[in-house]
Structures are given as C-alpha cells and as structure tokens.
Amino acid sequence: MPKNLNLLLIEDNLIEIMKMKRTLSLLKLEHTIQEAKNGEEALEILQDKSNFPDLILLDLNMPKISGIEFLSILKNNVEIRHIPTVILTTSDNQKDLEECFKLGVSGYILKPLKYDDYVKKIETVLAYWSMNELKKY
User: To the nearest whole percent, how much of the chain has pLDDT over 90?
Assistant: First the structure.
C-alpha cells in the first residue's frame, strides 16, 4: 500500500518550488513537502532527528552549498546518510552524474522542458518511493 511521504525539496528557484507543489496537487498526492532554499537550510532542517524526511529531492545548482557538496555532507554523516536522495536537475553533465553516484545518490532525474514530461517523471519517482519498504531509523 503506497504511503504518504515526508519530502524535503532543496531548491533555490521559486518557480521550480511552485512547479513541484502544482505537480503534487495535480496528481492529487498528499505528500508533505518541506522546502529549503539551499544546503545550509536543509542541514538545519535535518538536525530535527524526530522528523527526518522519507525522501530528499535535491537540485545541484544552488548558492552557498552546491548540491554535490550537500550530498557529500549528507552521505558522510552517519545519522542522516540513510535518507534516500534523488537529484532533480537540468545538468546533464556526465561528471556531475558520476560524482553523485560515487557519493551514493538514490537517483538522478533530468528536469524536462515540457511540464507534462516533468509531471510524469515526478509521478514515477514518488510512486516508487511511496511503495519502497525502507524502514525509518
């Protein structure tokens, strides 16, 4: 049985945040979404051990701490490295892709230009993680 997810969206672009919220609404998904506009905000959110997200959706191109730097911090922290993290980015740079997988990313999704394609990708990602049997720590 699919479950509602507690999502952490790490994204600095307001339009992308609105697009994600619109997509969840369009798909009639009742996932909870927390927003962080950069890696520093996300790390603050993750200090609350009682409310870890089920899934992190992470943009790569952000101010202060890049997505790759954030991913490195996350995966080197024993308390939070278990949280599945999916990259949502416009970067099809092979070096970025390889670095993310070396660090232990759970998925790497390119944001398509067409909104309908974006909706399909988000629906697929969230459907998978809402059925995943990963236990919370």
Answer: 86
